[in-house]
Amino acid sequence: MTTRKTIWGWALYDFGNSAFFTVIVSFTYGVFFATEIVPEGGTLGSVVWARGILISSLIIAVSSPFLGALADRGGHRRRYLFVTTAVAILATALLYFPTPGEVLLALTIFVIANTAAELAQVFYFAYLPEISTHNNIGKISGYGWSLGYLGGLLVMGITLVGFVQAETPWFGVSAGEEALFQNVRATTLVVAIWFAVFAIPIFRWVPEPEVHGAPPLGELVRGTVSQLRSTLKDIRRYSQVARLLVARMIYNDGIGMIFGIGVIYTREVFGFTLTQAMQFGLVINFAAGLGALAMGFLDDRIGGKKTILISLVGLTFAVLWATLAPSDSTNSIYLAGVVIGIFMGPAQAASRSLLGRFIPPEKETEFYGFFAFSGKSTAFIGTIAYIAMTTAFGSPRYGVGSIMVFFLIGGLILAKVDEDAGVAASGRAAAS
User: Fold this and answer.
1) pLDDT at position 72, please?
2) pLDDT in tens, 140-162
3) pTM, two decimal places
4) 77/130 Cα distance (integer angstroms)
5) What are the structural domains, with CATH classification, of the chain?
6) Which of 144, 157, 296, 332 is in Cβ range 3.0-4.6 Å of 14 for a Cys bridge?
């Protein structure tokens, strides 16, 4: 029986690692890279940043299904989670060192950090079906995602008050261009420490199933490749999983674009300062945390599919709003951001829990590897669409507007998923 301590241990990992995705990928460091690390700044900065996200996405897409199957077969999921988490934390701390102009160094470290943090989620997500039942998986997934947004919110607040906006930054850190923006770079150290501290509970409080007699490495690799082939051949049995992953492959590109370039967009189109961009991030995170928590309960009542579809409709409307908002209307873009936050959290949390309902026992990590694959394998399409539209028309508005297409197409494919059939094929409903 799963205890509250186990659930808290699992959810606190979200609380810790979301600081990376919030402060580094989406808000503070992404904006700093695009406007200060890249000497020319402006549109070129956002394009270079998008390329870094693209590179890490391709690495994740290629490696995640194999690593997931390897972890299931060898019984070393906790070990892989530890290694990828440690690499992500170390690389995040190293982002402190690149200064304006050191584009290649900063981008290389970021790609390593982002790749490791995303791969760690494959192993982290795989615990969800084991610590939940068919009747509460949506709520527990929502708990984790809402805690994640809360964690991101808190770290954003700490770094904003203590470093970015402070006249005298904490711990004797210097501010300003003369100090090579040491106060902004120091936010990466805060994120690394936060991530490390709140990653500890999952290793101490969440049990790992015992595995006896793990095969030698060579045999393990060969067996993993064979298992992946078997799963792909047998995909008809899990047809609802396939439909869900294809749908997510598309609509998640849109979500990823929001994370990758959303705040940079506020800088380029609405003239936000770094402080205003961080405040914008705080607003989105707060709304997303509330949305993920509230709709986690809705997920268990009406199902993950309907929850995701509702979220995609809301996101489409919000992105249209953000695309058309007047450049001199700060209130308008803030309101669009709130709506994005409210529906972005549930779309992610419900996707994670819906797959958890469809996964057959003993294949959790493998299938969440395919989940990561679906989230990254076509990420280059979204990135290319943003780069192409922004470059062709000379305005990020066109790049952001292209996000709606991903939500619409992904939603149409998701509408064909039969949730009851997916649960029945997994055998988990009976086990609950």
Assistant:
1) 66
2) 888 887 888 889 889 988 998 88
3) 0.78
4) 13
5) 4-205+223-427 (1.20.1250.20)
6) 144
Single-letter amino acid, residue 79: R
For residue 47, give both structure tokens: 């394009």
pLDDT, residue 372, reads 73
Cα R_g (the chain), whole angstroms: 21
- Spatial separation of the C-alpha atoms in residues 122 and 68, rounded to whole Å: 7
Arithmetic mean of pLDDT over the chain: 83
**Can you give the length of the chain in residues?**
432
